Amino acid sequence: MVKTVIAALFGGSLMLSGVASGHELKVLQGFKNPESVVADKAGRVYVSEIGEFEKDGDGQIAVIEPDGKRRVFAKGMNDPKGLAFVGQDLYVTDKNRILRVGVDGQWTVLVDQSAFPVAPAFLNDLEPDFDGKYLYVSDSGDIANQGGTSGAIYRVILATGKVETIINHQQDARIKAPNGLWMDDTGEVLIYVDFASGVLYKLDLLNRHLIELAKGFGGGDGLALGADKKLYISDYINGKVFSLSIDDEVKLEKQGFQSAADIGVTADGKVLLIPDMKAGTVTWLELHE
């Protein structure tokens, strides 16, 4: 089970091993600032396209069908970033709000900026809990200036849209520009990578205790768990993707991207999906068993 994998992540110190070489299956081009990817059970891949930064209304979600055909799934957003499915609904961080997108591509605002305890600066990644009751969201703060003092992680109660602060910079100075999130199936542990420090942390949700797991991930961006029981971490600034094994081994899996953003995996966990924001591409990378 996933929680057994998580338990293994808490071992001793982590060291960088050699460079692995996954098999690149395909690369699709022509996306406009692709930030995040998520796959559904039917094999469709959804890609958030920011469009032009700070230009409201030109952001969209593209969908790639299993046969490779691409179409616009939802449009008219501002700067859409993190994506997460809960049931059939797709949730999106859109600048300073969270949207819910139905199966028909029509969206509504689930959480407006006024619902946050503090006005959000840069809502980024999304991660649901195992039961689909909560949605965790990272606010990377003043990300251009190492997060500033506004970095935070929030929890949204999906039934009501109420927002709760889980941890922020004022409570722990290590919370600088939290980005990628990943939760185990106990609902008690949230793993996150900080864009400003490149450090991977374990956050114990019961006592808000923060533990450093590994570091050296540059501009830490996305997190995804593969069927090979490895946690994958993307480094936006250096264009790299790393893996962390259950044996506490960190490997450089793939490099050469201009900006490896918020990664995802296919439903079977065997293929890593890597959006390269600056290159405007999404890469399918077959993972090792």
- Unreliable spans: 1-15
What about the largest sheet? 5 strands, mixed
Backbone structural class: mainly beta
Mean pLDDT: 92
| SSE string, helices as H and strands as E | HEEEEEEEEEEEEEEEEEEEEEEEEE
Radius of gyration: 17 Å
Distance between the termini: 16 Å
Name the beta content range.
over 45%
Q: What is the number of strand segments?
A: 25
What sort of overall outline do the alpha carbons produce when their principal axes are compared? globular
Our count of helices gives 1
Structure notes:
The protein has 289 residues and is mainly β. It is built from one helix and 25 strands. The chain has a five-stranded mixed β-sheet, with no helix packed on it. Strands 2-25-24-23 form a four-stranded antiparallel β-sheet, with no helix packed on it. A four-stranded antiparallel β-sheet has the order 3-4-5-6, with no helix packed on it.
Briefly summarize what is shown.
The chain has 289 residues and is an all-beta fold.
Key terms:
289 residues, mainly beta, 1 helix, globular, disordered N terminus
Explain the layout of strands and helices.
Blueprint: H1 2-9, E1 15-19, E2 23-28, E3 34-39, E4 45-49, E5 59-64, E6 70-77, E7 80-86, E8 89-94, E9 97-101, E10 107-111, E11 123-128, E12 134-139, E13 152-157, E14 162-168, E15 178-183, E16 189-194, E17 199-204, E18 209-215, E19 220-225, E20 231-235, E21 240-244, E22 249-254, E23 264-265, E24 271-276, E25 281-286
Parallel strand pairs: 1-22
Antiparallel strand pairs: 2-25, 3-4, 4-5, 5-6, 7-8, 8-9, 9-10, 11-12, 12-13, 13-14, 15-16, 16-17, 17-18, 19-20, 20-21, 21-22, 23-24, 24-25
